[in-house]
Amino acid sequence: MTENNEFNSIMTDLAVEARDMAVERTGGEISGVSVEEEDKEIAKITRIEVLNQAASKKISKPPGNYITIESESLRQTNPQIHQELSGVLAAEINNLIDYPALTQNPTQMPTILVIGLGNWNATPDALGPQVVHHLLVTRHIYNSAEPESRRGIRSVCALAPGVLGLTGIETAEIIKGVVDRVKPNLIIAIDALAARESERLASTLQISDTGIYPGSGVGKRRIGITKKDMGVPVIAMGMPTVINSVNIVNDTIEAISQNHNINLNLSQKKQTQKQVIENILQPFLGDMIVAPKGIDKLIRDTSRIVAGGINIALHPDVETENVSFYLQ
Amino acid sequence: MTENNEFNSIMTDLAVEARDMAVERTGGEISGVSVEEEDKEIAKITRIEVLNQAASKKISKPPGNYITIESESLRQTNPQIHQELSGVLAAEINNLIDYPALTQNPTQMPTILVIGLGNWNATPDALGPQVVHHLLVTRHIYNSAEPESRRGIRSVCALAPGVLGLTGIETAEIIKGVVDRVKPNLIIAIDALAARESERLASTLQISDTGIYPGSGVGKRRIGITKKDMGVPVIAMGMPTVINSVNIVNDTIEAISQNHNINLNLSQKKQTQKQVIENILQPFLGDMIVAPKGIDKLIRDTSRIVAGGINIALHPDVETENVSFYLQ
Amino acid sequence: MTENNEFNSIMTDLAVEARDMAVERTGGEISGVSVEEEDKEIAKITRIEVLNQAASKKISKPPGNYITIESESLRQTNPQIHQELSGVLAAEINNLIDYPALTQNPTQMPTILVIGLGNWNATPDALGPQVVHHLLVTRHIYNSAEPESRRGIRSVCALAPGVLGLTGIETAEIIKGVVDRVKPNLIIAIDALAARESERLASTLQISDTGIYPGSGVGKRRIGITKKDMGVPVIAMGMPTVINSVNIVNDTIEAISQNHNINLNLSQKKQTQKQVIENILQPFLGDMIVAPKGIDKLIRDTSRIVAGGINIALHPDVETENVSFYLQ
Amino acid sequence: MTENNEFNSIMTDLAVEARDMAVERTGGEISGVSVEEEDKEIAKITRIEVLNQAASKKISKPPGNYITIESESLRQTNPQIHQELSGVLAAEINNLIDYPALTQNPTQMPTILVIGLGNWNATPDALGPQVVHHLLVTRHIYNSAEPESRRGIRSVCALAPGVLGLTGIETAEIIKGVVDRVKPNLIIAIDALAARESERLASTLQISDTGIYPGSGVGKRRIGITKKDMGVPVIAMGMPTVINSVNIVNDTIEAISQNHNINLNLSQKKQTQKQVIENILQPFLGDMIVAPKGIDKLIRDTSRIVAGGINIALHPDVETENVSFYLQ
């Protein structure tokens, strides 16, 4: 999950939520933020572009592209639909990748490094490592493969580096070290996200080209999984698996205010209502997680959908119709 | 986790919380409820007895004994303290077992059936099955064991029957079927519990002699894991692993009321404030669980403590000093 | 895995191997054993019937029907083929079930109890519990379901009773107790099997109508999961996941004899060559298992195929085309 | 597990077995190999030094030190003994570490990188990752820790890089990349090993200062986890979890030869008996693993013993008496 920095002080990793909150707050569209929506049969796609620093400050997300795929079917057990969702995901991933620009000359094939962020041993945080587990990796056989086979696959490698608390090493440091050896032309980083609204959990995928800062802050300035720090383009993908308890309480109080037509605004002096709630909740809820029931199964299913989407996006031979065949 | 019936409409499985709430509500001690507290170095023990039906109604718990062991050390990684907690737990378990009364004549040795309620595959609900996993079972070797060895152990067997959603069979029906064949003289049932207050999570053990109704209701009247339905005494044990989101919001609103000295009472006509909150939360929080971070490790550790406590309580040869030696 | 009794002294749970060995030994067909083979595109099916006690002694398997489905595709990661294998399996399961005879009158719908034998926590022995995990169970909602829905499903319940070493209770005793309460009209029991030949591992499914004796012997006479002991028909299903190390050595010595054209017959006085080998191996191999590499994934995949096959066989609404949709 | 290169053509990762085989073959001590044995109450320790290249060729192990700790107690469930074994292990680890030489000046504290080789998802290969899981890592808090606390701990970090088949990257490449960023002064690499004799399984620990080549070969020359390739000293540790099936058969045939006093020597022309057996076994046993029953539990227990040993060796504040307290 991303760190609690200036960019997610509003406590959501989703640009679509951050933008909705900014709209609510200001009562109108945000200049410098373009939004495009598309309704597909099985998913709603929202493509947000944060065009400049001014807009970035307003919605607390770095400039760049954020694509959200929303589908209730992510939660259902329907392999047919899951397969189609992998296809939708693949198309949006490829929207953000400029393949010819990855390598200096068009005959050179790019190498892609997929990073599974998060902790194997903590269910809601295991999305990234589980995606890596299901992924089709080919780099170790790519060069010795027949030229004909090579046309159908790209060179893909993967790493699940663990989390700072288990390794003692900043996750981005581990990745930078591996990047320096492997010299990939593109990084795709997967992570479990935190959302603001519970209905987003396990029903939304976000893809962005802005990179990601893994883990929780420990004070000093660190490097990120970003184009600037890694030297190659970074696609970040994720799905919300937890929500913040502060949001639950805040939302309930707001719903109560509306339903009961009473003014419950708890803002105080320099504190927003949310900060008031956070101060009260911290002592006894700081160590809680709020996750969907059945999170074990949800992570299991969606990690296959995401791995499938990446496989389709990266390997010409993998198509929506045969995606399950290539899942490890 | 216990069903949502008349006895836990107040949404806690802990008698100690139910009693505190009744005291708060009525502003005084509850007649018919005796409370005894003991402070040990590593744990605080509260022994509550619900003496009659009138008292039972007031605190929404069946008449009988409820022992609570509270210790922050349950959450810490300290094998030495864990061992001592197993010893404390064993002593309290044995407080509720009248061994001579279990069998008709004193030379006959009792057989004890330990039931691990809950779902292997859902982390916060896996306490019961994990306790069974670590338990020392002996019934299959008891009769062929040398008389001398037999003096040091009791005949113990165990079952993790699963949950209704996975088996299609009422859990108590499965147990009743096994009881009819095995004819144990005592049942000990372990379950993950729901608490009202987050600080109880993974820091409180409850032991009672009132039995337990496993799982969530599906309409028709069912049998329970109780002396009445099983025909033998039942000791129920558990530890809270989740809290109800309604309680979080309710507690926060109450804390806000106090801190800000404003009246936020949301009770309406025939609805308590909690019911108002529940109605608002249900649509978007009904499928959430609120559990401690690191719940995987907490369940792993405490299941060993509980299994150790049962081993010490039941087998004369197992003592606090050597309890780890017998953990499976 | 089945016990080491008179019926598998030849150390295979597969009738097809037992029959092959008898043929090799006697040099001709075994009277009283009928064999029918069918080659399908994705599987070879062998239907063996042991017609009488004399034949039963010769091949060391109780009289009855044994169907073997052999397919290399069981080991491959191909969801499309896996789906088709579930369909093939379903057809053979239904070959052995006489639905009208299950209930006394044709309007009464039968209840089927599926038993997952084996140990959750020992990978090669976890097939049964994992099948139960994926199974569609309906009994708890069957009676309250609309008559129309009820036409598409049958009442199915399931249990993973554990193993004697973990429960202290004979597995068949647990099942008998549950059968007495639930009163099913049919039992389907799934177990991991031991094969003689390594190429059978994870590539063969066996279905029989002769029942099964779970676990390893502990001396005294016990009840089995058989029609005689349970009072209702029993279908036993399984897949070999381990081979016996004695067989490996024995087969190698035989291969050496043939390849090198030397006589290596090690039979002695009253001991067969295999017994000689067993005596030598026991001290240092008695506690070994010989399993395929990647057994974790093989169990995971095949448990879904088997659960799918049972779902198709039992529920009219589940068909080969939509089988994945109903997997839990 | 180590690669199948010139140094383990004899199919054991244990120097103690390699040396015994050389002694058997040549009928006497091997010059250039010094052996020192010490019997402790709970373990037998053998310290082998391979002094030169000539000796290295004879026993097929690189020159350097190999310490073997043999103890049946590794397989038993006895936390007290496990604790003592961690202490024994720690002492032998520290025998191979020259702390003052790790850093250029004595006031600079060394950073140690622990590598858990192997595959999380394949039980017998999961020793390395599980040791990392239990390890006390401190590097991320070391610099911000009080000077007083710092005296009691060393700066330790850890990584479980995965296996080539899952990452597509040579494991040593990943490690080299991380080493270049983290700049540790020492590497400790843990791996599951293959032994020749089944009684070694889960009863022997080996520590060496010669480094390790992870994974199976894929043709081209690769870098190793060695002082030469990593630029810092490397301690390699491991425990055998599997044996080679060729060895089982070979050993049985030899035992048969002895017991029956017949000549079964199967060597042919240019093939040793073992090669003959390997050729016969390969088609049907190449994909098998031979592991102890209960391997899941053995890996779980011994990974804690090894992590405890490393914790004691590296951190002055961790002692044998309190080792469990620091296990994660």
Automatic annotation (TrEMBL), chains A, B, C, D:
<dbReference type="InterPro" id="IPR005080">
    <property type="entry name" value="Peptidase_A25"/>
</dbReference>
<feature type="propeptide">
    <location>
        <begin position="1"/>
        <end position="13"/>
    </location>
</feature>
<comment type="function">
    <text>Initiates the rapid degradation of small, acid-soluble proteins during spore germination.</text>
</comment>
<dbReference type="GO" id="GO:0004222">
    <property type="term" value="F:metalloendopeptidase activity"/>
</dbReference>
<keyword id="KW-0865">Zymogen</keyword>
<protein>
    <recommendedName>
        <fullName>Germination protease</fullName>
        <ecNumber>3.4.24.78</ecNumber>
    </recommendedName>
</protein>
<keyword id="KW-0645">Protease</keyword>
<dbReference type="GO" id="GO:0009847">
    <property type="term" value="P:spore germination"/>
</dbReference>
<keyword id="KW-0378">Hydrolase</keyword>
<dbReference type="InterPro" id="IPR023430">
    <property type="entry name" value="Pept_HybD-like_dom_sf"/>
</dbReference>
<dbReference type="Pfam" id="PF03418">
    <property type="entry name" value="Peptidase_A25"/>
</dbReference>
<comment type="subunit">
    <text>Homotetramer.</text>
</comment>
<comment type="similarity">
    <text>Belongs to the peptidase A25 family.</text>
</comment>
<dbReference type="GO" id="GO:0006508">
    <property type="term" value="P:proteolysis"/>
</dbReference>
